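Example 3.2
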Amino acid sequence: MKSEIDLIDEMRKKTCCSNNCIGKILVHSILKCCEQCRELQIRCDQHVSHLHLVLLGHMNACLHDTEQTVRSKQKQTDRCRTRLNSTFHGMSVCTDAFHFLHDISRKVTRKLKVQFEKCGLEPKMHGNVAKPNSSLTSSFESRRSVVKFVENYALTNALVLPGRTAGAKNPDALLLPCGTTKRHVYQLYTKACGNDSFMSYSLFCETWQNFLPDITIQKPRTDLCATCRQDTISIQRLRSLDDTVRADLMNRSLKHLELVAGQREHYRTSIEFCRSTLPPDSILGEKIVEQYGISVVQHYSFDFAQQIFISNSSQQVGPLYFLVPYKLALFGIMCEPLGKMVIYVIPESVLVGKGANMVVSLLHHFLAKYSSGEQRVVLNADNCVGQNKNNTVLQYLMWRVTCGLNSHIELALMLAGHTKFGPDYGFGVFKRMYRHAEVNTVKDVCGLIERSKLLLAEPVGTEEGEVLIPCFDWQTKFASAGTISGIKKFHHFTFDSSMPGILSVKEYAKSNTVELQLDINAILSQSQALPATVVPEGLSLSQETGISVPQNSSICS
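Structure, written as tokens:
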């Protein structure tokens, strides 16, 4: 490739005109002018070339555009066209030399001359500024259709976890599953629109980001599923694996995500079906069956939340940080079709554990007080074996069907690691208020819960140890009924009064049904009377006499 010096020497030898303008200029001056002009060939924020501004200034000084020509020895005549006298450092040069010195072509000079004759010194903007690329623009209707589509998709598939989204600036963000991609949502959008509307993928993502920043895809680090975590680590090493292992790994990961999507779809469709059976403007606790005389199906989800502490203040003084706080456990049952959730506030002095007895006792209290009088119930819970997925809970549900309290009960458990569902939303609403509130008693906590239209509060006891909602010993009541083997691998359990003693189980929502035989005689032998209550141990002596400070006691003095 020729160097700049070689090109200049070649131009000087060829001669630009009869006057040899290039030959009269020093090589150093030519090289410096060319380099400076190349540096000026950039566009500012207004998309105007700096070199063009220099050339327009030159035309303003050297362009002859008067009405009549200027001739020293001939008569002046009407001007037919403009004429440009090119100069360089005060010396007249020919057109070829001027173009070579400024590293431009005749086309640039011609267009700038037309621009100058029409608009004067007004700079010429890039053509794409006034005429944007059609692939990067769309009509208002197209953007609105994208916004509506993404909103509807999020309402169907996203999770709302206010106040519980790590790293999110907006606590009301809608979280799509981490297996979802924007490319997948874009493909669904183009398939739904067909030939009616088209938008590029980049503009689709830009519209999503600008108008729906609250709808985000859950980060893989927030997914606590062991299988997903292991697959993520393995996929990062795909390059080092052979084709067979790589294909097996991808198939296993896709199969797991399909199971997760199937369980989530079952959860969503169950809520929609139950909502369709309810009359409009229904209220939680209203006996719909007795009032309207219709058959309804109700859906409830229940779960424990992380315990909280009192006293709590958003402006906590330093010494209180070192004291032992009073613990409160939270248990929530949400009725998704009605958009209401009951949070049971369990003080430390009446808590008898978070096992099956407490779960069944609170669930029994809820169904007695807040049910709609329905005979068919769909329950959803997480996959915790100690609390929800155990023999006591299943025996209690069979007992309800056998005693005629319900005719049909279905218990569906979320897939381990993918257990974010309705109660998490309710707990998130409460935790967001709790962070900025000042609460000192159980009554204050219940009052804080009642501030939300979504939540209802049920205190299980008081700080002094008074029990308001007793915990029953259901495990002892059903001890003679034996155990159900192999329940850990199943996620769906169905009890029906038409099949007494038969427990229908499925591993996943789309799996085949398996029937298990239960000891119906042991269940029938149990009367409808409630079992004996479990007396809480209460607080220890050191907790009753006062809050102890084992270390740094001088701080609180």
